[in-house]
Specification:
The mean pLDDT is 92. The protein has helices at residues 26-36, 56-63, 76-89, 102-108, 129-136; strands at 46-50, 68-73, 95-99, 113-118, 140-150, 162-168, 171-177. A 7-stranded mixed sheet has the order 3-2-1-4-5-7-6, with helices on both faces. It has 5 helices and 7 strands; from the N terminus they run αβαβαβαβαβββ. Helix 5 (129-136) links the parallel strand 4 and strand 5.
Length: 181
Amino acid sequence: MRIVGGIFSGRRFNPPTTTPARPTTDLAKEGLFNILANLIDLEDAKTCELFAGTGNITYELASRGAADMTVVERDMGNISFIKKTAKELGIEDKLHIIRGDVFKFMKQSTEQYDFIFADAPYDLVHIDDVPMLVFEKNMLAPEGIFVHEHTTRNDYQKHPNFLRMKNYGTTIFTFFHHPNK
């Protein structure tokens, strides 16, 4: 796992081999951030990574200047790795770690974020609830972008906030935008 762009570009990390997470590949992540560069200014952005796993996307956001980052993850091993990596990068003061269930967090959330990324387990029974809750709970700030990583089993092209979709092999990123955009 490496950071593909920004001030920490090239930094490599080795997540624990026991992690249940499936980090986004470097190739897919590079493609994702190339698209995002044309959609949103991440510098000084307030971000949220749902189902954070190893925190892979958040390190990329920090590298590109995000000012306020929230990660939501339930696995204690992954949280320990996120804390360790945040300390190595010197971003602890910008990072808020929420240990718990993502759906519970979303249902209770009163915050708005400029950028939200969700990488739920592909076999999660309620994976289709994630985009619904982002907009139902008004989590996305005006002009914000939400990206949902999933497989071909899920299709969100009829969602009212659908923006675009990009396929990287078995990984699909669906981009959503705020209704006011």
